[in-house]
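Morning F.,

Quick status update on the modeling queue. The single chain you submitted on Monday has been processed. Sequence for confirmation:
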Amino acid sequence: MQQQLDYVLRTVDERGVRFVRMWFTDVLGQLKSFAITREELENALEEGMTFDGSAIEGFSRVQESDMLAVPDPNTFQILPWRSGSDDDAPVARMFCDIQHLSGEPFAGDPRSVLRRNLERAREKGFTFYSSPEMEFFYFESPDSPEPLDRAGYFDLTEVDLASDLRRQTILTLERMSIPCEYSHHEVAPSQHEIDLRHCDALTMADNIMTFRIVVKEVARDLGVYATFMPKPIAGAFGSGMHTHLSLFEGDVNAFHDPGDPNGLSKVAKHFIAGLLHHAREITAVTNQTVNSYKRLIEGYEAPVHVCWARNNSSALVRVPVPKRGKESSTRIEFRSPDPACNPYLAFSAMLAAGLKGIEEGYELPPAATDNIYEMTNEERAVEGIGRLPQSLAEAIDVMEGSELLAEALGEHVFDFFIRNKRKEWDAYRSQVTPWELDRYLGTL
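Structure tokens below.
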């Protein structure tokens, strides 16, 4: 740790950094930030910085408002978009863990929630890795979803701007030590995907928060608007965050068994069974907005039904076939999350569900071999294939009865999340939408 502290201080001095931004998230995953000067940096690293937690969504009450933001020196990076002009001194950032003044972790800090769940996994000998496929849209402005192109999946667009946007985004991410695997045009008009290279879940959650800022900053610099809204265009495909997951025991992939027909170990099978068993309970966390459920409908390749498959994109959990000679890279893909989620809480929920399956020895049901969308309700019932919640209201109702999530998130986050999302649903259902006016006003 001291070596990393020394690196931060040395880099700040050598690069002439004048301000360092302290980053953290509220319960809903909104990025929060305040800046400190170089003169305050050593004190911040040693003692943390005091701030008013009562002003942050889902944090403390007024009578217990003072909190500490303790920067994690391992997350220190220069912000490329603030370091390019001669008259602008470089600006850096560090993610923070939120603590009480006593030094105890704050129960409402999503990063601390994930740390606690990762510690549970470590106690069982596991390290949790993840790799998300980040989908998003580019529009001309935030005022209306007007696409920049009409291209489709893997198309090489004639509009140079789209390719430049992805290229500049990846270059910026790499300058912040966030490696990417793929980038391409997605199915919907003006929809794009960038896949982040796998790493431990805490680092990945930090990377996702950074990714969302980078995508928006690069888009703004090039005169367009980027959004992670799951379903901004009616009748088009929505944006998901298909997440590849694996557990390692030291350097050994705990999901891989060369003697199994599917290459899956018992640990992997129990983990998948846990995800399936608790999928409905955790959906409110992995898909936390009203709009999320406009994506989770049939006909748009988003998972709707609770099942798994070897290589079937209609399943909730997919087991990708490893490349030849790379069988030890066995992983599973959880396809329901969307990029509007709080990644710290989403990873906590997925890990808790999978570990529960391992702890309880859940039996993995048979893999789905047919296109689930084409099956009848009766056929799905015979196969024991359930359905994900169809609205935020249903998802919150299911979540409220989940002992798994109450334990994984902690009472503070669990209770606040449910209260907040019930308010969101109440606000939504009180609206009269253009669809209703078009359908009913002229005929009723």
